[in-house]
Design a protein that fits this description.
Largest sheet: 5 strands, antiparallel
Distance between the termini: 17 Å
Radius of gyration: 17 Å
Shape: globular
Number of strands: 5
Strand order of the largest sheet: 4-3-2-1-5
Order of helices and strands: EEEEEHHHHHH
Strand content: 15-25%
Number of helices: 6
Structural class: alpha+beta
Number of domains: 2
Helix content: 40-55%
């Protein structure tokens, strides 16, 4: 099940894509954005595959972007330079995004922060409002525009439906 904001791959390449919009029949297409370069295109939903672990997929994307940037700045970078903490990578990713005017990466970044915050919650009573507050705080720390409560709710609804369907399919096969 594809939802707006999902991190996906397609059968045309291994690059990480973000779902920008979904058009129901008669058009029946999914508008995608390639996070590496911002190229937008549409595909049939059958050619789009949602990432099993969206947080890990986006973290790999962040590592790739940051390591390419470091290599371009310093081709003689050592392994110690490349193995920094993830928070440093995230901060550097945000800096790279703003320097290159890659505004298409901000919504997927906020979606990642929403997924990350929600998966870190261990309480059964954790609501979308609680998640929104924590995501707003994180966005303020990194200097990112704060998302609306509606955006957080829509991303959580899509992600929770995807997790539920995955759970059902794994237990009935």
């Amino acid at each position: 099940m594809t939802y707006v904001g999902a991190f996906v791959t397609s059968d045309i390449g291994p690059e990480l894509l973000a779902v920008m919009s979904i058009h129901r029949p008669p058009r029946d297409t999914v508008k995608l954005c390639r996070l590496a370069d911002g190229h937008c295109f549409s595909l049939n939903p059958s050619r789009v595959h949602v990432a099993d672990n969206p947080c890990r997929a986006f973290e790999e994307h962040i590592r790739e972007v940051v390591s390419k940037s470091r290599t371009l700045r310093n081709p003689l970078a050592t392994v110690a330079d490349k193995s920094r903490h993830f928070i440093d990578n995230l901060d550097e990713y945000i800096t790279i995004t703003s320097e290159t005017s890659a505004n298409y990466r901000y919504k997927p970044l906020v979606t990642y922060l929403i997924h990350l915050e929600y998966t870190r919650s261990y309480f059964g009573s954790y609501t979308s409002v609680d998640c929104w507050r924590h995501v707003c705080h994180t966005c303020e720390l990194f200097g990112i525009a704060v998302p609306s409560l509606g955006l957080v709710r829509s991303r959580l609804d899509g992600a929770s439906k995807q997790r539920w369907l995955t759970f059902i399919n794994r237990n009935h096969i």
